Recover the amino acids of this structure.
């Protein structure tokens, strides 16, 4: 199996993991705060990763001071995006929240051009403009508090794009498992103060079950993403992230009978269509 195919399969696995994570977050309900959900998500992730890395020759502390600095930066940016994404998931339809978050590959393109000096092709500029128009149809700006969840979803994509760009930068320095472990541990500790300030709610058995599943699915999504970018170029595999929108739409309809409005549907088709068009041109 060549590296490109490995990257594709890992990205598909990541997309399914992220879609299932979003579903379990909605199942938990609003009684449990966003901070508490993120704490449990990352607590489970740390346990899984430490267990899976046991006995393997993996340096979990980072290979150098330079890489550790960028890992911490990735953790801060990624955690900010995760908080915004969880808030968005709680307030919007599952498909809409997944769609906004999956604008991240386009921000990866922008950040990779600015900071990693990757070449921005001429065809990508109009595509990015079209994508932003599609995002506006999903956000539906009203200049009121009603649009805050959609705006949070859009901002989560920007921060996720920054985090994924840093993962791409660190791919030759650190093992993917190390990057995910650092992110999970940093996020777990970082969520303790706001979780306690807002008020810790002891979850019931059902909520605890879904909190554990959230951590499992999130870890699958993070590990899948890290390995996908390890084995293949972002331009080759990032398109497969959009499968999570399809997975989320199916889950949302089957479980909550969610049907996005016409503007969200049009915006979704524009964004996914632009992603497919960009992918085909990038291959050429």
């Amino acid at each position: 199996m060549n590296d490109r195919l490995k990257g594709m399969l890992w990205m598909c696995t990541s997309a399914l993991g992220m879609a299932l994570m979003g579903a379990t977050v909605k199942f938990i309900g609003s009684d449990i705060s966003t901070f508490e959900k993120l704490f449990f998500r990352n607590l489970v992730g740390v346990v899984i990763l430490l267990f899976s890395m046991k006995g393997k020759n993996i340096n979990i502390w980072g290979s150098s001071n330079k890489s550790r600095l960028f890992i911490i930066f990735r953790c801060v940016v990624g955690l900010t995006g995760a908080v915004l994404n969880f808030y968005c998931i709680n307030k919007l339809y599952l498909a809409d929240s997944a769609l906004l978050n999956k604008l991240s590959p386009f921000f990866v393109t922008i950040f990779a051009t600015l900071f990693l000096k990757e070449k921005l092709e001429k065809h990508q500029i109009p595509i990015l403009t079209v994508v932003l128009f599609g995002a506006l149809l999903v956000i539906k700006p009203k200049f009121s508090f009603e649009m805050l969840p959609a705006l949070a979803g859009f901002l989560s994509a920007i921060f996720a794009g920054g985090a994924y760009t840093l993962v791409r930068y660190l791919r030759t320095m650190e093992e993917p498992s190390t990057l995910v472990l650092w992110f999970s541990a940093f996020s777990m500790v970082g969520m303790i103060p706001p979780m306690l300030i807002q008020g810790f709610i002891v979850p019931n058995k059902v909520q605890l079950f879904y909190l554990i599943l959230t951590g499992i699915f999130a870890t699958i999504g993070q590990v899948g993403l890290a390995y996908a970018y390890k084995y293949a170029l972002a331009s080759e595999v990032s398109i497969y992230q959009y499968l999570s929108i399809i997975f989320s739409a199916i889950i949302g309809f089957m479980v909550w009978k969610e049907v996005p409005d016409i503007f969200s549907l049009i915006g979704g088709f524009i964004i996914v269509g632009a992603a497919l068009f960009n992918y085909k041109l990038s291959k050429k």
Observations:
- The first helix runs from residue 3 to 28.
